[in-house]
Amino acid sequence: MAENDGNRWRHGLFGCFHDIKWTIITLFLPCYPLYKIGIAIGRKWIAVLTIMLLCLAYLSTSSVRVPFAVNDHNVATKLLLSGLFCISTLLFVTYIGLRLFMRIRIKKMQKIEGSIFHDLLAVSCCGPCAICQEIQEAEILDQERIK
């Protein structure tokens, strides 16, 4: 296990393969590590809300993708699709905000330095890698609580 000198992540953003178990779980079932991170930071309700938003955003986005491919000139259909697109965008932005909160909370608990901009890039562009990085820190938090 890598030592934390008090200002850096123990594993890099692309250090997913330090613990292959969490990489596989995060890729196929991201809800579980998100829940574990929420428990580790003492905000289980944030984790549950994040998981719900992830599911809702996926459902609303998948329902928008297919009809946009159809060339329909019906105004009601276009309004409905525009509304669904706005809802899915709002859900996604809220999800990113909650993920950012979780990441910043872990950083504060572990005294990790870094900018919010880099955290925003990590959770929005490299989501699964950020989850793997955070779950590895969360496991260390849990081990420190047990000691």
Q: In what range is the share of β-strand residues?
A: under 5%
Morphology: elongated
Q: How many beta-strand segments?
A: 0
Structural class, please? mainly alpha
Q: What's the tally of helices?
A: 6
How large is the radius of gyration? 18 Å
Instruction: Give the low-pLDDT segments.
Output: none
Helix/strand order: HHHHHH
Give the fraction of residues assigned to helices: over 70%
User: What is the straight-line distance between the termini?
Assistant: 16 Å
Instruction: Indicate the mean pLDDT.
Output: 81
How can the largest sheet be summarized?
A: none
Q: Can you lay out the helices and strands and say which pair or pack?
A:
Blueprint: H1 20-28, H2 31-40, H3 44-69, H4 75-110, H5 116-125, H6 127-146
How would you describe this structure to a colleague?
With 147 residues, the protein is mostly helical. The protein is 76% helix and 0% strand. It is built from six helices and no strands. The chain has helices spanning 20-28, 31-40, 44-69, 75-110, 116-125, 127-146. The longest helix has 36 residues, at 75-110. The protein is elongated, with a radius of gyration of 18 Å. 24% of the residues are buried.
Give a short overview:
This protein is mostly helical and 147 residues long. The chain is built from 6 helices and no strands.
Summary keywords:
mainly alpha
